[in-house]
Design goal:
315 residues, alpha/beta, 40% helix
C-alpha cells in the first residue's frame, strides 16, 4: 500500500494528485491545504474519476492524516508571477516552509520528502537545515523538469524518440542552470556529431545545433508558459510523479534532482541538481559525471548564485 501526502492543493499540487491517480502510483493520497475547502473539492473531483482508472483513495485531510506516508510532496507557497524570478520568492516561501515542516515531520517522520515549491534549491536546502530528516530522504525536484524540456526540444529537432536522447540540465533550477554538452548524446552518438552521423533516407542533413539557443529555450520555458497561461503545472506534475515512481518501484534510477552537496566537484553546503541515483532508499548516491573544465566552472557558478541568495535570507 503506497501512501502519498501532498501539501498544497493549488494547480501544481492538484495536478500531481490527478497524475499520480492516472498513473496508478498510489493507493492513498492525502491532500492538505490551509484552504481545506479547496483541498476537499480537488480531492473529490479526482476521487470521482477513479472508477475508470486505478483504485485509489483521494481525500482532503490535516497533518495527522499524513501518518505512515511513504512520500510527502510539498507544493505550497506563493506562486511565481510574470516577470518574477524563482529566487525573488525565496524568503516568502522559506517562511511558509518553516511553518509547515515541524507539523508534517511529526506525523510522517519516515517519509521521503519531495520539495517542489520555488525556489526549489533554496527550499530543499532549508528543509535539510531545519527538519532533522536524513538528507537522502530530502529531494528537490530540481532540474528534472529542465531536463525533460531539453530532451523534448532535442527530440523535436532530430525527430527521434526522447527515450534515446541522453542529455541533462544541471545546477540551479533557474537562470544559472547549464547543459553539459560534452556528455549529451543520441543513442551513443555525441550531439556534436549528430549532424553528420545520422543518415536520413531523404538525403537531408541535420543542421549543427546551436547550444546557446537550446539552453535559452529550456531556461525560458517556464517564464514563457507563465506569460501565456498564468502558471506551469502539467510538465512539473509528470516530472514529480516520475520521481515518485522511482522511489516506489524498487529500481534505482538516475535523475537530475536537487540534493545537498558535500564536496562534490569542490562544492559544499548548497543544494542543486547533479545526477542522483533515486530509489527505495531515497536519493542515496550521486553519479559524478566527467564534466569538462568549462562545465565544472559553470556548476560552481550556479552554486555561487544560490549561496549568494542563501546569505540574504533567514533559515
Amino acid at each position: 500500500m503506497n501512501k502519498i501526502t501532498i501539501i498544497g492543493s493549488g494547480s501544481v499540487g492538484s495536478t500531481i494528485a490527478y497524475t499520480l491517480t492516472i498513473m496508478g502510483l498510489a493507493d492513498e493520497i492525502v491532500m492538505i491545504d490551509i484552504n481545506n475547502k479547496k483541498a476537499y473539492g480537488e480531492a473529490l473531483d479526482i476521487q470521482q474519476g477513479t472508477p475508470f482508472c486505478s483504485s485509489c483513495t483521494v481525500y482532503a485531510g490535516s497533518f495527522v492524516d499524513a501518518e505512515n506516508s511513504d512520500i510527502v510532496i510539498i507544493t505550497s507557497g506563493a506562486a511565481r508571477k510574470p516577470g518574477q524570478s524563482r529566487l525573488d520568492l525565496a524568503q516568502i516561501n522559506v517562511d511558509i516552509l518553516k511553518s509547515i515542516i515541524p507539523d508534517i515531520t511529526k506525523y510522517a517522520p519516515e517519509a521521503t520528502y519531495i520539495i517542489v515549491s520555488n525556489p526549489v534549491d533554496i527550499l530543499t536546502y532549508a528543509v535539510c537545515k531545519c527538519s532533522g530528516l536524513p538528507e537522502e530522504r530530502i529531494i528537490g525536484s530540481g532540474t528534472i523538469l529542465d531536463t525533460a524540456r531539453l530532451r523534448a526540444r532535442l527530440s523535436k529537432i532530430y525527430g527521434i524518440n526522447q527515450r534515446n536522447i541522453h542529455a541533462y540540465v544541471m545546477g540551479e533550477h533557474g537562470d544559472s542552470s547549464f547543459v553539459p554538452w560534452s556528455l549529451a548524446n543520441i543513442s551513443n552518438i555525441p550531439i556534436a556529431d549528430c549532424s553528420t552521423s545520422i543518415i536520413r533516407a531523404d538525403g537531408k542533413i541535420y543542421p549543427e545545433i546551436d547550444y546557446q539557443v537550446v539552453e535559452n529555450y529550456v531556461r525560458n520555458s517556464g517564464a514563457r508558459v507563465i506569460q501565456d497561461k498564468g502558471a506551469t503545472f502539467y510538465a512539473v506534475a509528470v516530472s514529480v510523479c516520475h520521481i515518485c515512481r522511482s522511489l516506489l518501484s524498487g529500481v534505482d534510477t538516475p535523475l537530475t534532482v536537487s540534493t545537498m552537496l558535500h564536496g562534490e566537484y569542490g562544492i559544499d553546503d548548497v543544494c542543486l541538481s547533479l545526477l542522483n541515483i533515486v530509489g527505495p532508499h531515497g536519493a542515496h548516491s550521486k553519479l559524478l559525471l566527467p564534466l569538462s573544465q568549462a562545465e565544472t566552472i559553470a556548476l560552481k557558478k550556479s552554486a555561487d548564485c544560490l549561496k549568494e541568495t542563501i546569505k540574504g535570507i533567514t533559515i
